Amino acid sequence: MNSDAAAHAVREMFTSIAPRYDFLNHLLSMNVDKLWWRRAARTFAQILSRPNTRVLDLCCGTGDMTSVLFGYASPTAQVYGADFSHVMLQRASEKFAATRLRWIEADALKLPFADVEFDLVTAAFGFRNLVNYDAGLREIVRLLKSGGECGILDFGEPVGMIGKLYRIYFKRVLPVIGTAISGVRGPYAYLPASVERFPAPDEMLDRMRRAGFREVNWTPYTFGIAGLYRGRK
Ligand SMILES: C[S@@+](CC[C@H](N)C(=O)[O-])C[C@H]1O[C@@H](n2cnc3c(N)ncnc32)[C@H](O)[C@@H]1O
Q1: What CA–CA distance (Å, rounded) separates 73 from 61?
Q2: For residue range 47-102, what is the model confidence (pLDDT) as tens digits?
Q3: How far, in Å, from the CA of 60 to the mean position of ligand 1?
Q4: Which atom of ligand 1 is nearest to the CA of 85?
Q5: Angle subtended at Cα 149 by Cα 62 and Cα 38, rounded to the nearest 5 degrees
Q6: Phi and psi (nearest 5°) for 130?
């Protein structure tokens, strides 16, 4: 499959689960996703609270992480959520209609913004789906101002006994519940496969350095089930 076809398949997949996405997300993560969004957003509280700060949340889906970021943002901040699934964005704009959040329908690999426009670029549980991680990182570097920061929150693969138990849940239980409730077969089997494909922390940090980030680091969340990658341009 070429990269356009792969991106199309990912977009169709998310569009197909959009109506049940929020419900399933909270159920399957047992609401821990809310803690992870908040913890990641808090990390960037200082940048968010600056006057006129510009923030872009990539792969924003139905906008929950974007809205958590907005909660920490100064009154003059401009906060954008971008996603390439029209249906996901529609839900985001309905859910957060009363806010100043702005929604952009765009591919994270080809964003309709000029260079060096943003103080902070984030992605929560979306970066892993990109067809080309290095191109995704280069696009973030392009958008960031000098000194600007990037935060990529995504799943990891915990080790040890917790890892073993988690893998049973993630590979056996979660796809069955996800498929039953969403009524769509593919996406919840794709989820564990996409986590396996995602680079391990050391490799991801190397890729970030090569893309042009400095001060890169990874903070595991909840035994490494998820984690936050940070880097500064
Ligand atoms: C698992 S959801 C995460 C949504 C949200 N950030 C959250 O934390 O709930 C992944 C989202 O990434 C979007 N996505 C995947 N690849 C993308 C790409 N290349 N460009 C833009 N959005 C993309 C999907 O449409 C989907 O809405």
Answers
A1: 20
A2: 999 999 999 999 999 999 999 999 999 999 999 999 999 999 999 999 999 999 99
A3: 6
A4: 25
A5: 45
A6: -65, 145
